[in-house]
Specification:
The protein has 142 residues and is an alpha+beta fold. The chain has 3 helices and 7 strands. Strands 1, 2, 3, 4, 5, 6 and 7 form a 7-stranded antiparallel sheet that branches. A hairpin with a 5-residue loop joins strand 4 and strand 5.
Length: 142
């Protein structure tokens, strides 16, 4: 596999503040939402915090199929579309791991707020777009 592509995918994943995540609604249509990109140690697993009561959490509980998209525009447009599954995580250890100062704004009861959970995305593939070309890579090859 092209080491330059792998380096670009890793850089894009690590440097983006935001990611676009998708889920499937009850009618079978994709739903996309921009989320804060929580830091992770590996390319296969991505984390996001959200409200347990959100429509997105309900959708992932019914259908865990998901995608996560990162992009950058400078100096030219590039994108990385990860495909995999999303899990709703509510254990205290994981919630504490990703808790950030200021999260009280979204979860007023703090890290133990029952309306605070973590979405854990596990990638299977990534499709990298650059210079009018697409390259799909199995995540285990990165």
């Amino acid at each position: 596999m092209n080491s330059k592509i792998i380096a670009e995918v890793r850089s894009m994943r690590k440097s983006n503040t935001f990611a676009y995540i998708s889920s499937i609604n009850d009618e079978g249509f994709p739903q996309v939402k921009c989320m804060f990109n929580l830091k992770s140690d590996d390319i296969k697993t991505h984390y996001f915090s959200t409200n347990t009561s959100s429509a997105r959490v309900a959708q992932y509980r019914k259908n865990p199929k998901a995608s996560v998209y990162y992009s950058k525009k400078i100096p030219s447009f590039k994108g990385a579309l990860f495909t995999g599954t999303m899990e709703v995580v509510e254990d205290s250890e994981t919630k504490e791991r990703f808790w950030n100062k200021g999260d009280e704004k979204y979860y007023p009861k703090g890290v133990t707020d029952p309306d605070y959970c973590i979405l854990k995305f596990t990638a299977e593939t990534v499709n990298f777009y650059s210079s009018l070309k697409n390259t799909t890579i199995a995540i285990d090859d990165i």
